[in-house]
Amino acid sequence: MSLFKSLAIMLGREPVKPAPSEFTEAARACHDCKLANKRSKEERDAIQHAMHQAHQVHTWRNRRWVALVLVNLLFVVSYRFDVQLVEGALTASRVIGFHMADLNSALQVTLAFKTILINLVIGTSTVLAMWWLLGGRTFCSWVCPYHLLAEWAEALHLYLAAKKIVSDHPLDRRLRAVLWLTFAGLAFASGYPVFEFISPTGILSRALTYGPGLSLGVVAVLLAIEVFYSRRMWCRYICPIGITYGVVGAVSPLRVVFRPQDCHHEGACRKVCLVPHVLDCTKKGFAPDIKVPIGADCTRCGLCVDTCPTGALRFEVKGLEKLL
Amino acid sequence: MSRSDEARRRFLRSVLIGGATIGAALAGWLPVARGANTSRLRPPGALAEDQFLSACIKCGQCVQVCPVKAIELGDIDAGFGMGVPHIAARAQACDFSCDALQCILACPTGALSHHPSKKEEVTMGVARLDKPDACLARQGRGFQGAARGSAFKGVHRYAEIDRWKALAIADHPYDLPLCDLCVRECPIKDAIVMAPMSADPTDPRRTPVVKDACVGCGMCEMICPAEPSAIVVVAGGKGRVA
Q: Quick one: B211 and B170 in the same domain?
């Protein structure tokens, strides 16, 4: 998938089936082969059984939760026990003395303050390089404390939805891009980093280190909306931090890769995915190549990797496929 | 419901929720407009209030380095001042225990400007004798015991006892024939003096007089044994670093 298309889909364009000319020879052969061979009942049963088994797999999710908790604990422990490993909060910090700055917070402050601050340039360069290597929105699912709470709220939402107590109200995905632009514009025009006032990432990070406050009400309201009204509303349709890191991740070497040869096209991955539009290639006959890297909006959370019974979706580091 | 109907509803929902999000974020302006932050004492080196709120990235590194834990972060009632540091001097003043203005050095964005290179150059505010009638010195009275009672949690660096570690004020009782705590514990030379109240040399009454050297650290406000404090710091009194 082209970089342009990957970014456009992140910004809200709906993915479409690639034009016939975009398919490689190998992909076309793979799709034709699948069409020619109808599955027997035994095969279908075996697939259902394998999918059921795969639902019990939480390898990547568990690794991710451990990493997320550890990173956030580092901030807390550093301050509470004066270890001075990671000082500050997720918005800006010093890691063993080196400046780090959250890309979106640094952008908001720079636009509001209208000054290029050398420490923020150093801090954002470090963070930019790090998240380029690690996959951009990897920040969202592996570090952001709101993401973890939202995952639990999502589980509750799905439980209540299965009981028909609540239903999901999806929003237009273009909203997030509109809000990104609006918040950038507001910071510049008003002189205040306006978005920071409701950023649950900043609020939670500070609450963890410096103690809770009334500002946690913002987080509570968001979680309540996500449980009762709109599944994963903040991360999917609103959070500008996601777009900022998504742009970085668009060219990242660390990504999830889809291989249609192994896929049964049952769609289990799209059901667990925070951003299912990036998995459009997993629909039957949609993959334009026999190896398709997943787009910029992917948070590298690994839920699809866990849930895929055949290993058609896997983590990969570009250039290191042979080594790993 | 038809497909286009659902699309129309989804669009309306998105406009509403998007508008609500922007509205909620902009609501942070209201407390600022109502002046919720103007009376707040900002840490040493803080830029003028508007610029300070623009530049602060709300990381709390200044909170972490302060040896007397004088700095706190604003909560949601501060609006755009949420997560932005301030000092509640009555509870815990900045007494420059760190010598080198650590909060300024810790600030990654220069919201705490490097302009002051020593404590005498700080301009946080200026002290003012707010309730002259409550001042013990003006009544010619002394003071015995812990300045703020035995339960007070505030600390202060008594250089003559331990140059490197701040001690609990509650653990440091005084016995003064005439109360001069605000002058005695002021960390800035010649910022506040005791002046006689009459020409009569036998009149023991003295009044604290704040001089130009006052930087507004709030030490006098914290140590004042009157309840409420007779002397307070007016934030940004002399204007902050531009």
A: yes
Residue of B54, B71, B77 to mutate, testing the A interface (most A Cβ within 10 Å of its Cβ): B54
Residue A124 distance to chain B (closest CA, Å): 11
* φ/ψ of residue B205, rounded to 5: -70, 140
Given an 8 Å threshold on Cβ–Cβ distance, is B26 in contact with A194? yes
Distance from CA of A105 to the nearest CA of B (A): 7
With 0-12 / 13-18 / 19 or more C-beta atoms within 10 angstroms meaning exposed / middle / buried, residue B178 is middle
**Which range marks the domain in which residue B209 is found?**
125-153+164-235
**Complex ipTM over 0.90:** yes
Statement to judge: residues A121 and A42 lie in one domain: no
Contact B17 A238 (CB under 8 A): yes
Closest residue in chain A to residue B26, using alpha carbons only: A194
Size of chain A, expressed as the number of residues it contains = 324
> Does B64 contact A79 at a Cβ distance shorter than 8 Å?
yes
| Site from A192, A221, A225 to mutate, B interface, most B CB atoms within 10 angstroms | A192
Q: What is the pLDDT along chain A (324 residues), one digit of tens a residue?
A: 689 999 999 999 999 999 999 999 999 999 999 988 888 888 888 888 888 888 889 999 999 999 999 999 999 999 999 888 899 999 999 999 899 999 999 999 999 999 998 989 999 999 999 999 999 999 999 999 999 999 999 999 999 999 999 999 999 999 999 999 999 999 999 999 999 999 999 999 999 999 999 999 999 999 999 999 999 999 999 999 999 999 999 999 999 999 999 999 999 999 999 999 999 999 999 999 999 999 999 999 999 999 999 999 999 998 887 765
Could B22 and A186 be called an inter-chain contact, meaning their C-beta atoms sit closer than 8 Å? yes
Are B54 and B138 found together in one domain? no
End-to-end distance of chain A based on CA atoms, in angstroms?
Answer: 23
Domain final residue pick, A247, A275, A292: A247
| Residues A287 and A230 reside in one and the same domain | no
Binary contact (B18, A218; C-beta < 8 A): no
A198·B32 Cβ contact <8 A? no
The pTM (predicted TM-score) of the whole model is 0.94
B17, A237: Cβ pair inside 8 Å? yes
Pairing, β A254-258 against β A313-317 = antiparallel
Let me know whether B136 and B66 are in one domain.
no
Mark out chain B residues that contact chain A at CB-CB < 8 A: 10-11, 13-14, 17-18, 21-22, 24-29, 32, 50-51, 53-61, 63-65, 72-73, 75-77, 79-80, 82-83, 106, 108-110
DSSP state letters, B23-73: HHHHTTHHHHHTTTTTTPBPPTTBBPHHHHHHH-----HHHHH-TT--EEE
Selected residue of B49, B58, B73 to mutate for chain A interface (largest A Cβ count, 10 A): B58
How many domains, chain B?
A: 2
Question: What is the distance in angstroms between the CA of the first residue and the CA of the last residue of chain B?
Answer: 60
Which SS3 state, helix, strand or coil, does residue B67 take?
A: coil
* Residue B46 maps to a domain: yes
Let me know whether A82 and A194 are in one domain.
Answer: yes
CATH number at residue B66: 3.30.70
- A215 plus A263 within the same structural domain: no
